[in-house]
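<instruction>
Derive structure tokens from the sequence
<data>
Labelled lines for chain and fold
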Amino acid sequence: MPHNITLSEFKEKIFDYENNKEWKYKGAVPAIIDFYADWCGPCKMVAPVLEKLGKKYQDKLEIYKVDTEAEQELAGMFGIQSIPTLLFIPLGEDPRMAAGALPEKELERIIGDVLKVTA
């Protein structure tokens, strides 16, 4: 299930950018971070899809949500210009971003191809 993450939790669970210059993901499984806002229509369309995928890939994938209104420093660090923006974090590789409300089939393809996770 997707869960909201704050700046301090991000540093603890994902990446501590204040103490590390080079990207090093701290998680044990690949992750998706959904940068969203409550007022954003496309974000509301993506939310149930991410919830469904969270159940499907339950122990193989973490899904986090970052409220760009509440966590402006975090959104700024990633240069979020439009929402929703999804950050895909594979194990041992640099993260990749995709902007816009991606359809479920495209998200599944990215989960398989980029995150190397199968159902």
Summary: The domain at 1-12+27-68+83-94+102-119 is CATH 3.40.30.10 (Glutaredoxin).
